[in-house]
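quick one: adenosine monophosphate bound model?
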Amino acid sequence: MTIVINMREPDERKMRIAANLIREGKLVAFPTETVYGLGADALNENAVRRIFQAKGRPPDNPLIIHIADFEQLYRLARDVPKEARILAEKFWPGPLTFVLPKREDVPYVTTGGLDTVAVRMPANEIALSLIRMSGRPIAAPSANISGKPSPTSAEHVADDFYGRIECIINGGETEIGVESTVLDLTSRPPVLLRPGGLPVEEIEKVIGKVEIHPAVKGYAVDTAKAPGMKYRHYAPNARVIVVEGRENRVHEKIIELIDEYRRKGLRVGVMATGRFYDADAWVDLGRSEEEVARNLFKALRELDKENVDVILAEGIEERGLGLAVMNRLKKAAGYKTIMLK
Ligand code: AMP
Ligand code: MG
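yep, here:
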């Protein structure tokens, strides 16, 4: 049975129900500013194991632990460098995750067998209140079946987990729409393992040069350092093709491809960034990087419901939030992109 709790801001009485479930080792999906998380007590091995089971997530794909005050970081991680303090001061709560050496208390189930742990403080009052009231650090990957687009609303979570987890907190649509930026602080210079809600350019303004892991842009896909990156992700049922390059060329090419696929008898969907396309289904993600990020996962889920066979997606520039957007799009496409000069 799944309890659905509607809450636009923290409500002490309702929150108590969810917090108690966390304390009992149960699964609670909750909103963050990035996407919805599927949460459990991060230090309770059995509870964490249930997250992996529910999602069908490979056991070597580590989880992010969510905390509500900075001091909690020291109970989960060792050798916290000064960069962590400086970045946290500037960007926490917010969409930035640190990878640091783990303390013994953190079970290997949570870290996917690694000696490092990923930690962040989410910028969402409901999430923060759940963590505080439960008194536990909360491990939470995105609340979607493994491999499916991340959920940006409680309805998406319910589509994947209704009846299979104890509680869903409905806090409305998430603001950012892509997951957090993951920064490995165990190397020097720090390494960007996953682009996300906080652009790497913002991080570099504060701590200087950050190395970009090659997998971020789609190279060297299976690597031990960044476990999550080797799995196909965000994949709708349809085949996704990303078309990138000069705007006008992209526009023309997509019109050409719509025609080509339709002549083969396929249903074609388009994800556009501010332009109309005459296809079987069409979603406009918006013009700005922020809008595109916010609408991306919802669009993938919507196009699936339209039963299209092919999704043609307009690429955007890989800067600011665009790097996170393109990383998700390329993964959804299984790295099938058409680059026009
Ligand atoms: P999700 O919460 O579903 O967005 O997935 C969390 C992602 O964070 C993983 O897939 C990894 O890419 C990354 N991550 C978590 N823990 C670690 C770690 N210890 N080392 C490297 N990457 C990590
Ligand atoms: Mg995920």
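Residues 239-339 form a domain with the Rossmann fold fold (CATH 3.40.50.11030).
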